[in-house]
Amino acid sequence: MKGISLRQLSAVLAVHKTGRIVNAARELSLTQPAVSLQIQEAERVAGTPLFERTREGLRPTAAGSAVIEAALEIDETLRRLGDEISAIRGGRRGRLRLGVVSTAKYFAPAIMAAFMQLHPELEISLWVGNRDETIASLEAQRIDVALMGRPPREFPVRATQIGEHPFVIIAPTGHPLVGHAGISKQQIAEENFLVRERGSGTRTALDIFLSEIPGRIENIGVELGSNETIKQAVMAGLGVALISAHTIAQEIEFGRLAILDVEGLPIIRNWFSVSRADRTPSPAMVAFEAFLREHGRSFLPDVIS
Predict the structure, then answer these.
(1) pLDDT band for position 91 (50/70/90)?
(2) Which of 86, 101, 153, 194 shows its CA 20 to 30 Å from the CA of 233?
(3) pTM of the model
(4) Residue 44: CB partners within 8 Å, gap ≥ 6?
(5) Which residue, 97, 103, 68, 51, is CA-closest to 245?
(6) 70-86 confidence digits (pLDDT tens)
(7) CA nearest 93: which of 80, 112, 108, 109?
(8) How does residue 56 score in pLDDT terms, banded at 50, 70 and 90?
(9) CATH number of the domain enclosing 111
(10) Interior/surface letters 50-89, b for 16+ CB within 10 angstroms, e for the rest
(11) Other CB atoms closer than 10 Å to residue 145's CB: what's the count?
(12) Could you tell me if 121 and 93 are in contact, meaning their C-beta atoms sit under 8 angstroms apart?
């Protein structure tokens, strides 16, 4: 594969990302024949097809997947090289791609703003997804640093604890259980729950919390796609919800939601800054992770103290 070029690898990645030659050409600002030629040349060097045509578009073959993985590694190496050279020059020190689980979006912008004040030379982007999506983005190196709960085990990572992450059960302020002390797990399990989708850290926490109640997980409640939707549904009286305390600071402050006093709650997890252990951290990553170690805890909302 020594004869393959960076231009050919870029075409392979673009076709893999977009699924079609026409879309890859648009992304690369090239003509379709030019992209097709690059793919053909890459396949000639490989000695085997890299894509197969399906109704849904072009799908990588086994050889194509191997080339794509290598191309991603090369792209990441070149990106780090650019960051390091920029740092040496003393000019703009590169970029930071921050990914956060959806629960962290309530405080991540404040962290970004404070960090950018200290490092205005950096280019920073923010990506938000659920836990499974965040892990996938970190593994594929689409993000540099992730703010999340329990670090992944699927691949080696560096993880630094930022601070505690409490989960509580919320209800509308007029709910009959508001103000009751020591509500039992059996009693709260009788309520109608509003839950996040599978793959989210919040859903996992609820599954564990209710696991000892026979049959409750199998009929756990109404699934909703975001913390915001869940909060609105709880305020409307549609049920109760286990949710991160860091998502409800404003609603508690203005008396729109109430935290129920349930035995075994709050569930205390932790927030972590996570990056891949098998990649050399860029100067931007080093600066950001140092900032989180020193200041990260101060950005976490204080709701239950």
Answers:
(1) very low
(2) 101
(3) 0.67
(4) none
(5) 103
(6) 999 998 888 888 777 76
(7) 80
(8) confident
(9) 3.40.190.10
(10) bbeeeeeebebbeebeebbeebbeeebeebbeebeebbee
(11) 24
(12) yes
| Token pair belonging to 295 | 């200041």
278 and 263, same structural domain?
no
In a shared domain, residues 234 and 291 = no
In a domain, 83, yes or no: no
pLDDT tens-digit series, residues 180-203: 999 999 999 999 999 998 888 888
Preceding omega of 266 cis (within 30 degrees of 0): yes
Please report whether residue 85 resides in a domain.
no
Nearest CA-CA partner of 193 in 164, 212, 218, 165: 218
CB 209, CB 237: distance < 8 Å: no
**Residue 210 domain-assigned?**
yes
User: CA 64 to CA 62: how far, in whole Å?
Assistant: 5
For residue range 259-284, what is the model confidence (pLDDT) as tens digits?
999 999 999 999 999 999 998 888 88
